[in-house]
């Protein structure tokens, strides 16, 4: 596996992200928060796009969590 990227998003405190090439040309982006919850996206497009999609999913999850509070 090829580790492509690691990113912390300041707007998503407590989340960290990784992107790995799971097999040739297939990328998986995973976000994990401090409590161990994970969100992931997999695809064959540009790994940066897969990462941004994962971050977008986390933002939607956080919005949903916060609206229930």
Give the helix proportion (percent range). 25-40%
Give the total of beta strands: 4
Rounded mean pLDDT score: 86
Low-confidence stretches: none
Describe, in plain words, how this protein is organized in 3D.
By secondary structure, this protein is of the alpha+beta class. The protein is built from 1 helix and 4 strands; from the N terminus they run ββββα. It has one domain (2-68). The chain has one helix spanning 47-68, and strands at residues 2-8, 15-23, 26-33, 38-43. A 4-stranded antiparallel beta sheet has the order 1-2-3-4, with helices on one face. Strand 3 and strand 4 (38-43) form a beta hairpin. The termini are far apart.
Keyword list:
alpha+beta; single chain; 69 residues; four-stranded antiparallel sheet
Write the SSE topology.
Blueprint (H helix, E strand, L loop, with lengths): L1 E7 L6 E9 L2 E8 L4 E6 L3 H22 L1
Antiparallel strand pairs: 1-2, 2-3, 3-4
Short summary of the structure?
This protein has 69 residues and is of the alpha+beta class. Helix content is 32%, strand content 43%. The model has no long low-confidence stretch (mean pLDDT 86).
């Amino acid at each position: 596996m090829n580790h492509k990227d690691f990113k912390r998003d300041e707007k998503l405190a407590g989340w960290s992200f990784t992107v790995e090439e799971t097999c040739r040309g297939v990328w998986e982006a995973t976000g994990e928060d401090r409590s161990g919850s994970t969100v992931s996206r997999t695809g064959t497009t540009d790994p940066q796009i897969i990462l941004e999609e994962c971050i977008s999913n986390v933002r939607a999850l956080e919005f949903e969590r916060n609206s229930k509070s």
